[in-house]
Design goal:
The structure is a single chain. With about 400 residues, the protein is α/β, with parallel strands linked by helices. The protein has two domains: about 140 residues, Aspartate Aminotransferase, domain 1, CATH 3.90.1150.10; about 250 residues, Aspartate Aminotransferase, domain 2. Helices cover about 35% and strands about 15% of the residues. The protein is built from 14 helices and 15 strands. The strands form three sheets. A seven-stranded mixed sheet has the order 4-10-9-8-7-5-6, sandwiched between helices. The chain has a four-stranded mixed sheet with strand order 1-2-3-13. Strands 11-12-15-14 form a four-stranded antiparallel sheet, with helices on one face. Strand 1 and strand 2 form a beta hairpin. Helix 3 runs antiparallel to helix 11, helix 4 runs parallel beside helix 11 and helix 12 runs parallel beside helix 14. The chain binds pyridoxal-5'-phosphate. Pyridoxal-5'-phosphate binds next to helix 5.
Length: about 400
């Protein structure tokens, strides 16, 4: 029987595929913003499973919903109806204003669903010639890992060796509105965009960029499809990041925190004109919209609202930026963020973000570098001021060199 961190690491490395490069911390328990490893060491989780656990680890209300529903009725398949799904749809409609929901499981599946919707809408409603639909996408995008999605990634590692790829995507520079204007043509079915690029390194586009895209979409009759799988559900200090520009997309894609980390739940939301393109048999998923997913999803949304997590994200996020802004270090290129979602971009001379993440791990704070030079700080939204101060002290300590960095690479 494995007992130590080394034992578990060895087990995983010996029998698992090596498609991740995780920090060597083996987590066995979690509660709120805290997790514990198999050696009994306690850490603050400042990654929050890429924003899937905005509600904090093992939130008792969501756990209860999972336990209750899974012991009563877990999976019906969509060949039959279940008594949870309609309630989940209604709650999402009341919360977002979109008239219809299509449920899937993972984020990538919901993105694929949106791509299908956009194409079929283009042919059957907009009148684009068959097989000519174009979808505009952006550099540094992250929308998941299916073969279609990695085919339009600008990250060579995500693509390399996995082609041939699906055609029909045009890659544009993120943040450049002129590029969108020039790319618009009658065959454009949709623009697929993250309002802030999380995996790209917490990249916030210029003010007005998203609202200009929204008006270009209107002008050229293309759908604006927002991937808010990571940015949505409170992460940025608003329920949805697009609210910062007072716009409304035609298609909204959610996942991750939609279940508070308890279960894979994703959805594509849209109004009738778009959703009506799907006829029975056009699209589906065995697990999509199952009763457990629906019950867990409802509890996860209730927790966000009832506990004021969006407001907390805004308030604590402002405080986080304020304190980090006072940090004077030659290592830092830029600090950017919105809500409890902050990227600390290090200068190349700093030697990469990973060794800082490893130093923070030794200090009891877990986070993950993204794109080599960015330390991403994204704790669960249930974090309180005292816990946040603790985390900021650790980050400042490591970045100002008070605590020695152990060379690991
Ligand atoms: C995580 C993520 C996805 C993919 O979700 P999976 O559940 O991992 O398939 C898609 N888009 C964005 C913006 C994400 O952060």
């Amino acid at each position: 029987m494995p007992t130590t961190t080394a034992d578990y690491v060895e087990l995983e490395d010996r029998y698992g595929a090596h498609n991740y490069h995780p920090l060597d911390v083996v987590i066995t328990k979690g509660e709120g913003v805290w997790v514990w490893d198999v050696d009994g060491k306690k850490y603050m989780d400042c990654l929050a499973a890429y924003s899937a656990v905005n509600q904090g680890h093992c939130h008792p209300r969501i756990v209860q919903a999972l336990v209750d529903q899974s012991s009563k009725m877990a999976l019906t398949s969509r060949a039959f109806r279940n008594d949870q799904l309609g309630l989940f749809y209604k709650q999402l409609t009341e919360m977002t204003g979109f008239s219809r929901t299509l449920p899937m499981n993972t984020g990538a599946e919901a993105v694929e669903t949106a791509i299908k919707a956009a194409r079929k809408w283009a042919y059957t409603v907009k009148g684009v010639p068959y097989n000519q639909a174009e979808i505009l996408v952006f550099s540094q995008n992250f929308h998941g890992r299916t073969t279609t999605i990695v085919g339009f990634s600008s990250d060579q590692q995500y693509r390399s060796g996995f082609g041939p790829f699906a055609p029909g995507f045009t890659l544009l520079e993120y943040g450049d509105i002129e590029a969108v204007r020039e790319a618009m043509n009658p065959n454009v079915a949709a623009v697929l965009i993250e309002p802030i690029q999380g995996e790209g390194g917490i990249i916030i586009p210029p003010d007005g960029y998203l609202s200009e895209i929204a008006s270009l979409c209107k002008e050229h009759r293309a759908l604006l499809m927002m991937d808010e799988i990571q940015s949505g559900l409170g992460r940025t200090g608003k329920m949805f990041a697009y609210e910062y520009e007072n716009i409304r997309p035609d298609v909204l894609i959610l996942g991750k925190a939609l279940s508070g980390g308890l279960y894979p739940v994703s959805v594509m939301l849209a109004d009738d004109e778009v959703m009506d393109v799907f006829q029975p048999g056009d699209h589906g998923s065995t697990y999509g919209g199952n009763p457990v997913a629906a019950a867990v999803g409802r509890a996860a949304l209730d927790v966000l609202v009832d506990e004021g997590l969006v407001e907390n994200s805004l308030a604590q996020g402002e405080y986080l930026m304020e304190r980090l802004g006072a940090l004077d270090s030659d290592l830092i290129q830029e600090i950017r963020g919105r809500g409890l979602w902050v990227g600390i971009e290090l200068r190349p001379e700093a030697g990469g973000a990973r060794r800082f993440c490893e130093a923070l791990q030794r200090e009891g704070l877990l986070c993950k570098e993204t794109h080599e030079h960015v330390i991403r700080i994204a704790p669960p939204l249930v974090i309180n001021r005292e816990e946040l101060d603790w985390a900021i002290d650790k980050v400042i300590g490591v970045l100002s060199g008070e605590r020695e960095l152990q060379a690991t690479t």
